[in-house]
Design brief:
Elements lengths: L2 H15 L14 H11 L4 H14 L3 H6 L2 H7 L6 H19 L12 H9 L6 H10 L10 H10 L4 H6 L5 H4 L5 H17 L4 H10 L72 H10 L4
Helix pairs in contact: 2-3, 2-6, 2-8, 5-6, 9-12
Length: about 300
């Protein structure tokens, strides 16, 4: 999309969204670290839900250090109201862990005294600081002009035709900061975020689709499509194995195809060799003279 058309569309989106949502207005100066932690809860989530979860986390644990040393699973249970509690919990814990390892404390107010570019590079190096978290902290806490967009907002902008599919994958909206002035950046960003959170929760909502079509009538070609559920393939049953009887054709045997394959009859196992019988010892020869003498000595009856 050309830059003038994109600017016109973004301005139209801003006007329409002001009639549907209430903008988020930060009160006073916001601490950098706490702004980033709140952004971890806010990503792809409505402001009202994110605020409740953030306050719940503050009350459930004694301090930031206790959150830092807890498990992601335990923290995600406290943040279960978020659409992706596990990812949010992991990001929040990583931001605290990296801040403590680098600063030996739980604050980043020193970044406000640095050049904006250096401060942004510093928070980008923190593990858990997603592009949305960095942009939100830049806009709200550091006073820079950077409109945060998460997955839901990027999906809406693609459906409306404000960005291409490649730009959606790259998580960039070229020319948005030029089309929306800095004094309107927080308002526009919060309105777009509310629409993106609604889209992220249910991209197939009929009411949401009708609303998006009022902004961009050609959006119907870019709506996400439901994944078709293909039936699982039915396994082909194998033919039963039937033993053939002697002299008879096996019942229910599959019809022969092609040439018959001659099968050699199984060989009978060789019988084990029988042990050779031992010959009986030859009888000792009888001496005739000894026998005659023994008979002569017998008395007649």
């Amino acid at each position: 999309m050309s830059s003038p058309n994109r600017s016109t569309l973004l301005s139209k989106i801003h006007r329409v969204l002001k009639k549907r949502y209430k903008p988020f207005v930060p009160r006073g100066e916001q601490p950098v670290l706490e702004t980033m932690l709140f952004a971890c809860c806010l990503e792809n989530t409505p402001y009202e839900v994110a605020e409740k979860v953030y306050q719940l986390v503050r009350k459930a644990f004694f301090d930031w250090n206790e959150i830092r040393v807890t498990t992601v699973k335990e923290l995600a249970e406290v943040m279960s109201a978020l659409p992706d509690a596990a990812a949010a919990a992991a990001n929040l814990k990583d931001v605290l862990q990296n801040t403590f390892e680098n600063e030996y404390c739980f604050e980043l107010e020193v970044l406000k005294k640095k050049n904006l570019g250096d401060a942004i590079k510093r928070i980008q190096k923190l593990e858990g600081a997603s592009p949305f978290v960095v942009a939100f902290a830049t806009q709200v806490a550091l006073g820079g002009h950077s409109i945060p967009v998460d997955q839901g907002a990027l999906g809406v902008l693609h459906v409306l035709g404000a960005i291409t599919e490649a730009e959606q994958v790259a998580r960039t909206v070229p020319g948005m900061e030029r089309a929306i002035s800095k004094n309107k950046g927080i308002e526009f960003g919060s309105l777009l975020h509310e629409l993106g959170a609604e889209f992220f929760a249910n991209p197939f909502s009929p009411q949401l689709r009708e609303f998006l079509l009022t902004i961009a009538p050609d959006a119907k070609h870019r709506f996400p499509k439901r994944a078709s559920k293909k039936p699982l393939p039915v396994p082909t049953p194998e033919p039963p194995i039937i033993e053939a009887r002697a002299g008879k054709k096996p019942l229910d045997a599959p019809a022969p195809t092609g040439k018959k394959k001659e099968v050699a009859p199984p060989k009978k196992p060789a019988e084990p060799a029988r042990p050779a019988k031992k010959k009986a010892p030859a009888a000792a020869p009888v001496k005739r003279k000894a026998v005659a003498k023994s008979l002569a000595k017998r008395k007649p009856r």
